[in-house]
Design goal:
Order of helices and strands: EHEEHEHHHEHEEHEEEEEHEEHHEHEEH
Radius of gyration: 20 Å
Helix content: 25-40%
Number of helices: 12
Structural class: alpha+beta
Strand content: 25-35%
């Protein structure tokens, strides 16, 4: 099959790398002529809403997918009349708006922090009577990696926070005192069969994911509960492909934070750490192939490389560390690659992960 991908970043690159051994061909659309996926498959350079570029992308394709959730929904709807688009534009639309996202969570019984919609500084002050302080205000659309949000700890923070968001439609929600963040990566095929990767635990700094560890230390009952919620979300949206959900563990229960209708940074550990990677299973799902097993192989971690890349030779000497570079030019705050670590023991995985983090820190 020819798989067309809207977006040619590192996720598109890793999808193609996983799918080529399955016999599929890939084509991507991206506005950047040096998009990472162009190193491994055909690249069409153009805007995501350019009708001519979209037509070239879809020409002869068997299925269209996407690698990030800020793709124009109307662009995908225009393609859906000619070629299957999976996950569907419905899934994309639900995850592009934080209000709609929370409504989906509520519909399947997933608890969320107290929140309120906000369209002005006055509404933000009113919302805080519902959420309490501290709170966080987030744009409803286009935020990622900590962008498009501001924390409010006192009433005098309201005006600066609202100005920081540029007056965009937003939501305010209680700032959760969390013990840790967990995430689940799930996948659903064209026939409705679902599979779930073990829950992972994530560490963020400055709004950016730094480290993921899997499998997370959770009870079987909690794992089953979250799998049930993930299944319900996918069935509600008739989602086909990978879907990731991030959750706050408060110590007294779980609260849903957000979801992504695509392969996800918190699932990168599956490349070496699971029987079938999230990338291969996404390709399997959208092309009609059976899903592969999602069992973990030992214990894994993933370390994002932000802004700089450590010496590859030193990383190779760490033992059990696998370097994945995206072919991007370095700049502060940019994800340039990641390192996955896998071993048969929690202790060994932890020790190698600390070595990788130290090398990444030394390179700054």
């Amino acid at each position: 099959m020819l798989v067309a991908i809207v977006g040619g970043g590192q996720l598109g690159q890793m999808l193609a790398v996983a799918g080529i051994p399955l016999g599929h061909r890939f084509r991507v659309l991206d506005p950047a002529p040096d998009a990472p996926a162009g190193r491994v498959c055909e690249l069409i350079v153009g805007a995501y809403d350019d009708p001519e570029a979209l037509a070239r992308l879809a020409d002869g394709a068997d299925v269209v997918t996407y690698e990030f959730e800020n793709v124009p929904v109307d662009a995908l709807r225009s393609l859906a009349g000619r070629v299957p688009v999976l996950p569907s534009p419905t899934s994309l639309e639900a995850t592009q708006d934080r209000l709609r996202e929370k409504e989906v969570f509520a519909q399947v019984g997933l608890a969320v922090p107290p929140f309120a919609t906000v369209d002005s500084a006055g509404e933000l002050r009113e919302a805080l009577t519902h959420t309490g302080l501290p709170a966080v205000v987030k744009t409803r659309r286009l935020g990622y990696d900590g962008k498009g949000q501001a924390v409010i700890r006192a009433p005098h923070d309201v005006e600066p926070a609202w100005r920081a968001l540029g007056g965009a439609p937003a939501i305010a929600e209680s700032l959760v005192d969390l013990r840790r963040e967990l995430s689940i990566v799930a996948v659903r095929d064209r026939h409705g069969a679902c599979a779930f990767y073990p829950l992972a635990e994530n560490v963020h700094r400055d709004g950016i994911l730094r480290v993921t560890r899997a499998p997370a230390d959770v009870t079987p009952a909690l794992e089953a509960q979250i799998q049930g919620h993930a299944r319900a979300v996918m069935e509600h949206l008739d989602h086909v492909g990978v879907l990731a959900i991030e959750l706050f563990d408060t110590g007294e229960g779980l609260l849903a934070n957000e979801m992504a209708p695509r392969v996800h940074n918190t699932g990168h550990w599956t490349i070496e750490g699971a029987e079938t990677s999230q990338f291969e299973n996404h390709v399997r799902a959208i092309t009609g192939m059976p899903l592969g097993p999602t069992d973990a192989i030992g214990h894994s971690a993933m370390v994002n490389l932000i802004g700089v890349v450590p010496d590859p030779t030193a990383l190779a000497a760490a033992g059990g560390a696998h370097l994945h570079l995206y072919g991007k030019e370095p700049r502060p705050g940019r994800k340039l690659g990641h390192v996955t670590v896998r071993s048969d023991s929690v202790e060994r995985t932890r020790d190698v992960t600390l070595k990788v983090e130290a090398l990444a820190t030394d390179a700054l």
